[in-house]
Write a structure and sequence with these properties.
Elements lengths: L7 H29 L7 H6 L1 H12 L6 E5 L2 E5 L7 E8 L8 E4 L7 E5 L6 E11 L2 E11 L1
Antiparallel strand pairs: 1-2, 2-5, 3-4, 3-6, 6-7
Amino acid sequence: MAKFKLNWGWSMLIVYLIFMSVFLFYFWKSFKELESNELVTEDYYEKELVYGEVLAKKHNADTMRIQVQIIPDTDGLRIQFPPYVEKIEGKIILYKPDNSKLDREIILELEPDFSQKIPKDQLIPGRWDVKLDWKTKEVPYFIEKKLTIK
């Protein structure tokens, strides 16, 4: 029986096979993650019909003297309104693109310093789309911000 020798040809083949195996593993893994992304909302058609209204609300928010700020901090998420805004009614929409089960709406209830806090324990780390839809003095506003919570 002939003794097997590991020469440079066999070494190159082994390195190539290991490289291809790792490459195919990451290729498969990336497609697996794409399948789990839930980027479509259930009622996208209805939302598309009212998009003109959303654009008008965004324009109103852009023309405010002091902008509303959505700030991620160590305690969670803080939404800061300008101090001159009176009688705010609206909601905060938290949308998690990769897990629709975590999506939710929160009614705006501002603290005396014109802010609202969402505790960190209510926010799983990852990407979040935060949408603010509110009105004050019958003028509607809308702000949208994409955040990564760590």
